[in-house]
Every structure is written in structure tokens, then in C-alpha cells.
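Below is our example:
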Amino acid sequence: MLNSVNFFEVLKRSLSGPLVSEKEFNLLVSKKLKEVVKEYDIKFDGETLVPSDDSLADDVYKAALDFYSEVGTYCMDTERVIKFSEEEIKEGLKNALHKAFFGEGKEAKTFIPRKPESKEPPWCHVGAGIAVSNEEIHSKLVEGYASIPEADSISVPALAFIEGVPIRESPIEFYGALKMLASAKEALRRAGKPGMPILNLVSTAASQIAGIAVSAAQFGLKPSNGWLVPTYPELKIGNNELCKVAYLLSWGANIGAEYSPLIGGYSGGPEGTAVVFVANCIQGILVLKSTYQLAWITNVIDRCSSTKDAI
């Protein structure tokens, strides 16, 4: 029986995988996508926003499996490709977590995958990670999110300033993230839901080092929250992100794979981008060992994620 590839093996492959330039990897992504889109006859009619064709869904998955087993994930710092065989991918998906646990106390809940046409009520996540100008606005927004009766989890906004100083990638970012956490926790307390999980940690901390530092136990965060780890278009990751994954895995914290394939980039049109989207989902499970995922598609021509082809 084939064992799933563990995270340490992922790190080893980021050091020993095929050596290619980023330009070569980009061209490989584009070339292979065109091949699988043609092979599996994947087409978007330009009108159907939410296709219900099961055979189309199957074809996109098969194309993504074929594509990702050939392309892999590019580590930008080592210029190596982290590759998996088709058998390793299938085994990794088979052994992926089938439920996740979020929150503390009376706000603790189990997050399970919801299949199409399921009668199970969906998980209700509320909020946004956009930047706000001050702590007062931040606190009121978080309290409002948490006060929604149907909310199972929330995202909290980022702070743009601390004591009038713009928050940048510097030690100030660390202090800004601490302020954000204090504001969020106080808002949850006022809403009567102190254990409600936050699933976009750590907003305000754009750099991975600041996010790791603020997550230290003395600052009050629990592993039952969720931490976002970004990957970059298309199918790229860096050592900083891998380091954050290592930290969170060692703590037993929930990892959220965050990604946004680009229509109009190396993914091409909506057909190729749909395949890359599924490949990113596979990458999130195999490389990031994620328990949940936050994903969207961006049309870089229209600079929007709500165009027909993106939806």
C-alpha cells in the first residue's frame, strides 16, 4: 500500500526536485494546460454561470489530475519543482481529512465537506479581510459579524494604521497584528461568543514571520482557529510559506490553503483556469496539508472576480 507523502518529504522535494527557471515553469503550465483542455474537451459556453453537468465536473477533475502530476508545485526560492505521481496524488486525496474542528467552548463546531445536492446545512462563514482605518471601525465590524445568529466562523479585517503610522512589512506589522487580535477578541466577548473561530489569521500580518510571531501561545490564540497560507499564480510557493506550514503543523493548528488562479494569465481562459483551480485544491492538500481552503478566481483583464467566466 502506498503511503501519503508527509510534509517533511515535501520539504525534501523542494530541495531536490527538478531544477527549472520560473519562466520555464510558467511556459510548462501554459503548454500542459492547453493539452489537457483539448484532450478532455473542456468548454465554457459563456452563459452558464453554475454548470450542473456531472460529466464536465469529472472531466475537469481528470484533467487537473493529469496536469498536476505532470507540472507539480514550483518553489520560488530553490527553483525546484515539488512533484507527485498520479498514485501519490490519489492516495493523498483519499487520506485527506474528512472533517475539521474549529472554535472553543460553546462555539466549538465540526466542519464537514458538503457534497452537491446535500441536505446538510452549509457552514456559514461571515466577514472579510479588507483593511480598515482604525480600531473602532474594526471592533464594530467584528462584533457585527459575530452577532449574526447563523455565523459559524468569521474573518476579521486587517488594520491599516497603528497610532497613525501605516502598517508595513516591518516590526510595526507585528504590533499592528497584536492590536488587531486584541480588538477582535474584545469584540467577540461583547458579542457573547468568545470562542468563535477566526479563519483568516493573521490579518494585518502580511509577512509570514509576523504571522508566526503573533501566533505564539502567549498572545492567546488557539489552534482551533484557522491560519491562511498563500500560494501564488500559478502553483507557486516560497520558503516563508513552507516555514509557516511547518510551524502550524507542529502545533496541530488548522491550515487554510489560500489561492486565486488568474484568467488572462498563464492559465489562459476560463477552461484552463478551472483546471488550475482544481489543481490548486490538490496542491493545498498535498503540499500545505490544509484542513480547509479559501479560493477564488480573478479575471486580470477586467480586474474582477465576479465576471461570468470567473464565476
About this structure: The chain is about 40% helix and 15% strand. The mean pLDDT is 95.
